[in-house]
Design a protein that fits this description.
Two copies of one chain form a homodimer. The first copy, chain A, is α/β, with parallel strands linked by helices. Helices cover 35% and strands 23% of the residues of chain A. In chain A, the strands form three sheets. In chain A, strands 1, 2, 3, 4, 5, 6, 13, 14 and 15 form a nine-stranded mixed sheet that branches. In chain A, strands 9-11-7-12 form a four-stranded antiparallel sheet, with helices on one face. A two-stranded antiparallel ribbon of chain A has the order 8-10. In chain A, β3, α3 and β4 form a beta-alpha-beta unit. Chain A starts with 8 loop residues before the first helix and ends with a helix.
Chain lengths: 414, 414
């Protein structure tokens, strides 16, 4: 039974290649950002691929593409798998995509082999999972979990466009997206296949990562207000240089990240300073940074440490700061029962596996509020991700898709 | 004679106020950048003010507005004074403006009192003195000194517009600007009145600064090339984060500046990093910085120290750097004979003076290649400059204009 569900690796890789053709060709790598034209076009392709696989896809109120393979019971909670197909700017071809297309391939193999599950199987392409200018990642899975809130719709992108308006222009009804979350009774369990996006599996030589927890993420925007002045005539001791304080903050963020005892990282993603002329001391700077960890208590301490140190360094330079927390997401452990089904199936298939944390956020974190949740990782070459060099070998993707099928079968059993 | 040449302080202040009305009203403070619409309009006003003062102004081939008050000799080298009327973005109302308008006021008082000089007196509003996006400050005084070069015309601004094209659009002939420098035999001497732009005079309670030297300026652009990757999954030890290296460089620049034994400053004026998404480690950053000093040997050492330390810090993070020197300008001492005329005149007028360095660059540095050169500083409130808060009291401006007149009279004597 299990071997029969091995994916058609060539077909799966072909679909990954086809989907990768939808991207903004004016930028390096693969850019298919939420609400962009390439994203809109790629979703038509995803919908067609689901239809062709017999999944009768619908676009739900939150903009998720939901395919359904009916089970023997014809009603009751469903088994759910999926991921997302949007990318970061200049990202790669595998992040999210592998989970959606492997889900479709599993459904295809189930039909091709005449394998009927007890539960309905949902394969979902969740709307807009990646971090974006609105500051609202995991749009579709948030909506499904009932945590997309009215105030999120007012968030604006760099051009001042509100998320709600962007959703409307994309053909969605934002109020409907808020109003129809799934119920826990809809979900028998959720399992998501994803690339690791880090170097741990490749380094240890394991085919499979069984995710222990999804890291919590705290994102902050620090605004520095100093005093401008002539760069040639203002003595060093008289300065209140906003950019110098922001630079010290970047090093503080890095130092705190390096001090994490287990999995913990801290990153300064973006900086701006002004007025930006040669010859003028900067009077303002903004720094966007984030900390992530699967260890909630470390995250909590790191958060306080970063703000305290940035504040104290800025104070010493006579620079005022303002700290705004943009995201504040606790770590989410995976469900032990789902982990057990994954490891049993991996052992059955003879796939060496390793328990790993997920440094990245995932739709799975939101699905966890609805039922048992687990994640399967496959290796990323050189640990690269969110960049054009992102790569997972076809054989690794096929192994992951096979394990996804085997896990869903085990989760389906009474 | 000297007291008769005291300026009409109200009239001079009125002219400063009038000129300040020409600025980009869409931005804070006073923005009248070279080639901008407000700059174009303000130059019509300056030309009219010179004409009204009897200076028969012409626009020379380099775009300088040159007014001439004929002297008794009717030919031979001229006494020259002047400054500039362009501003940095969101700058102030006094930097440069005081020198041009005080020069016009001196000419007016000479005519009103029937005082005829031996030499012709030129009052010059030099084109584009401030640092700008082309990286070519002191455009007009460079041209006059014969050091505006063909390759400068190819420099581009942020929109890719070449300086030569910008000059043409402004109604100038760039090849003529290159081809007609002044000769040393044209210049009997140059003296420029300017606001101090720093806090030294206010702190020591002196009315007048007699400039000893104009600081040399070295400006550099450092480009950092790291490696992008997922901010949640890439272990801290595996990163090659371009923004972290750039931040360390900002602190290096500050540290070197703070180590200057005499007058020396170092400033990071602007930073950029990319790709700029939350969740993605930066793979590129650019930092524009500068060091200034009146001490050429410190400048030379600081320059090497900054590059060495930035390179070594980046190397430790596996980040590649590229350093481009945009400006490399040696310190320029003022001429002892001109300093003596200034201090004699100040003593005569009972004005307490102090010898001070100029941390800022000035058109005077280029005029120094043509003949004896000196500069007079008046106090800046709280040392602020290149910002909207820039302020010099009307009484201080009047004292400076009076001293400028008295100095020119002394320089005029055989």
């Amino acid at each position: 039974m299990i071997d029969a569900l091995a994916p058609d690796a060539g077909r799966l890789q072909g679909q990954i290649d086809e989907l990768s053709a939808f991207h903004d060709s004016g930028r390096p790598g693969w850019s298919r950002e939420v609400f962009s034209e390439p994203y809109r076009a790629s979703r038509e392709w995803v919908r067609a691929a689901m239809a062709e696989a017999g999944l009768n896809p619908v676009i739900d109120d939150a903009g998720n593409i939901v395919g359904r393979l009916p089970g023997r019971r014809r009603s009751g909670p469903a088994l759910v798998t999926g991921s997302h197909t949007d990318t970061v700017p200049s990202g790669g071809r595998f992040d999210g995509v592998v989970g959606v297309l492997a889900g479709i391939e599993v459904a295809r193999r189930l039909r091709e082999t005449g394998t009927e599950l007890e539960h309905d199987l949902l394969v979902v392409d969740f709307l807009g999972e990646e971090a974006n200018e609105f500051g609202i990642s995991c749009m579709g899975s948030r909506a499904v979990a009932g945590v997309l809130r009215p105030e999120h719709l007012d968030r604006t992108d760099g051009d001042g466009l509100a998320l709600g308006t962007a959703m409307e222009r994309f053909g969605l009804d934002p109020s409907a997206a808020l109003g129809r979350p799934w119920r826990a009774s809809d979900v028998h369990g959720y399992v998501e296949l994803h690339i690791e996006q880090g170097p741990l599996l490749e380094r240890s030589g394991h085919d499979i990562g069984v995710v222990t927890a999804i890291a919590g993420i705290d994102r902050l925007l620090v605004t520095f207000a100093g005093r401008s002045g002539h760069a040639g005539t203002t003595p060093m001791a008289d300065r209140h240089d906003a950019l110098v304080s922001a630079a010290a903050a970047v090093l503080t963020v890095e130092r705190v990240g390096c001090g994490a005892p287990v999995h913990g990282v801290a990153t300064s993603g973006h900086i701006q300073s002004g007025p930006g002329s040669m010859g003028v001391i900067t009077d303002q700077a903004r720094l966007w940074a984030e900390i992530r960890s699967v260890d909630g208590s470390w995250l909590h301490g790191a958060r306080r440490q970063i703000v305290d140190e940035i504040a104290s360094e800025a104070r010493a330079r006579g620079v005022d700061i303002d700290v705004e927390w943009l995201t504040d997401q606790d770590p989410v452990p995976t469900t032990e029962a789902v982990r057990d089904r994954i490891t049993e199936a991996a052992d059955d298939l003879g796939l060496p596996w390793k328990a790993v944390p997920s440094g990245a956020g995932h739709d799975a974190a939101h699905l966890a509020t609805l039922g048992p949740m687990g994640m399967i990782f496959v290796p990323s070459v050189a640990g690269r991700s969110h960049c054009p060099e992102e790569l997972t070998a076809p054989a690794d993707i096929a192994r992951g898709a096979h394990l996804l099928a085997a896990t869903l079968l085990r989760m389906d059993s009474p």
